[in-house]
Design goal:
199 residues, mainly alpha, globular
Length: 199
């Protein structure tokens, strides 16, 4: 298959994701995973988990960062451009159309009811994405402790009405991850050096 055909496939896949997913990046995670990992098999589950971590810790919306990464990996620069354009186009067109009659649109009672239903659905999509990602995490004591500490911190800070940016959680997780694996690497090196000396 030529790169151009692959790029068009990327555009169509991400266009559908952008068109039928409500609630932004977190709500899109489960849909993106189903489309690009399970159906298209463009990337593996483990790489998808890494992709979400990278997309979340770099500037820009998660869906756009994901589309750009997958597009580039599967079809180069053209794939990257078309996948990104595909995921952005539906919301741009819909918001542009709504902007002409935004006030009248929001005043409609049925629109308010629809938004309440969408909010409940979005909450489910986010929880579902979190559960799916947790299933693919490599289980070890470090991940377990970090997960528990993060959940506890989020709940406690929320109960105390202390607003902390999610960026701080991501940065703290990154620093702790580097420290843990650096310590593990140093320990393994030390053990190797000791074995060589004993020989």
């Amino acid at each position: 298959m030529s790169k151009f055909k692959r790029a068009l496939g990327l555009f169509w896949a991400f266009f559908k994701i952008g068109l039928f997913t409500f609630g932004g990046g977190y709500a899109m995670i489960a849909v993106i995973e189903r489309e690009i990992v399970e159906r298209k098999k463009w990337i593996e589950h483990e790489e998808f988990t890494d992709l979400i971590a990278i997309a979340e810790s770099t500037p820009g919306p998660l869906a756009i960062n994901s589309a750009t990464y997958v597009g580039y990996k599967y079809a180069g620069v053209l794939g990257s451009v078309l996948a990104t354009f595909g995921v952005v186009l539906p919301s741009f067109c819909i918001i542009f159309a709504i902007s002409f009659f935004f006030d009248a649109f929001l005043s409609l009672t049925w629109v308010g009811y629809a938004f309440r239903g969408i909010q409940a659905c979005v909450a489910f999509l986010i929880v579902n994405a979190g559960i799916k990602m947790a299933k693919h995490l490599k289980l070890n004591w470090f991940n377990g402790i970090l997960f528990g500490v993060t959940i506890t911190a989020m709940v406690v800070l929320d109960l105390l009405a202390i607003n902390v940016s999610s960026i701080l959680y991501i940065l703290a997780g990154g620093v702790l991850g580097v420290a843990f694996f650096l310590g593990k690497f140093m320990k393994e090196k030390k053990a190797e050096n000791k074995e060589e000396k004993d020989k």
